[in-house]
Design a protein that fits this description.
The chain is α/β, with parallel strands linked by helices and 250 residues long. The chain has one domain: Aldolase class I (TIM Barrel, Alpha-Beta Barrel), CATH 3.20.20. Helices cover 48% and strands 16% of the residues. It contains eleven helices and eight strands. An eight-stranded parallel barrel has the order 1-2-3-4-5-6-7-8, surrounded by five helices. Helix 5 packs parallel to helix 7, helix 7 runs parallel beside helix 8 and helix 8 packs parallel to helix 9. The longest helix is centred in the last third of the chain and has 19 residues. It is globular and about 55 Å long.
């Protein structure tokens, strides 16, 4: 088991410093587009809204379309052949259902063909310091995702946690081999959680990103994914950014 104090204190050498010989990766449209999780989770969305969201996801070739559990079957059918992952949520939005209910929901989504599960941690249990409860719950859904090759994204609801609880929750996610953690994306989140990851878990910014500068800041912070609702605007601006960059070196 990891020792919290030792791991926080340790730092890894930066492999990208000058002299390492590493070249910066060339930025392409997909560099940013595939970082986007597009959520269709609002309760008032109709079938027509879901269909329009699927068309938008295809048009802009994003990373993942996240839909409500009741929309999974239609979304998977509409997104077939697109190369875009269809994800859904378990325990949304507050993670307060009992473990059995959350596990059934998650496993049912996996059975239906969902490739990514956004699993909301039970924040009340974390704050109550019932860490064994939280770890046991996550261990079971992590095993189910691993068995079918799906991605588990644990939503920490980090905006509700003190720094010590963020550290403990991160370590629990590492122990259960979650692939990704969703955080609010504040400076405090990156300061506290970043040093603990050691390239073992990727980060997702769960708070919606609305502009290209915000998206680029998330990218600079090393996240693998970010939630975005203004997909068309962000990626239109990204195309313009790439075009200007290409002109400047031609």
């Amino acid at each position: 088991m990891d020792d919290d104090r030792n791991e926080v204190a340790r730092t890894e050498p930066d492999q990208t410093e000058a002299g390492s010989g590493a070249q910066p990766e060339k930025e392409t449209y997909e560099t940013l587009a595939k970082m986007i999780d597009y959520p269709l989770l609002a309760p008032e969305l109709t079938d027509a809204h879901i269909a329009a969201g699927c068309r938008l996801a295809r048009e802009w070739n994003i990373g993942c379309l996240v839909v409500r559990p009741s929309d999974v079957d239609e979304a998977i059918r509409w997104m077939d052949g697109s190369g875009i992952a269809v994800g859904s949520t378990t325990g949304w939005p507050n993670g307060i259902a009992v473990t059995g209910t959350k596990l059934y929901e998650g496993r049912d989504l996996l059975r239906r063909g969902v490739k990514e599960i956004d699993f909301v941690i039970n924040v009340g249990k974390v704050i109550s310091r019932q860490f064994q409860y939280v770890e046991t719950e996550l261990m079971q859904i992590a095993k189910s995702c691993l068995e079918v090759g799906a991605v588990l994204k644990v939503n920490l609801r980090s905006e509700l946690l003190d720094d010590d609880l963020k550290i403990i929750a991160t370590k629990i996610c590492k122990r259960v081999d979650a692939q990704m953690m969703a955080i609010a994306g504040t400076e405090d989140d990156f300061r506290v959680i970043g040093p603990l990851l050691k390239d073992r878990i990727q980060l997702k910014v769960a708070s919606p990103i609305q502009t290209l500068p915000e998206a680029l800041q998330s990218k600079a912070n090393g996240v693998a994914r970010f939630t975005a609702t203004a997909v068309a605007q962000i990626l239109t601006d990204w195309k313009s950014h790439l075009a200007r960059a290409a002109e400047s070196v031609s």
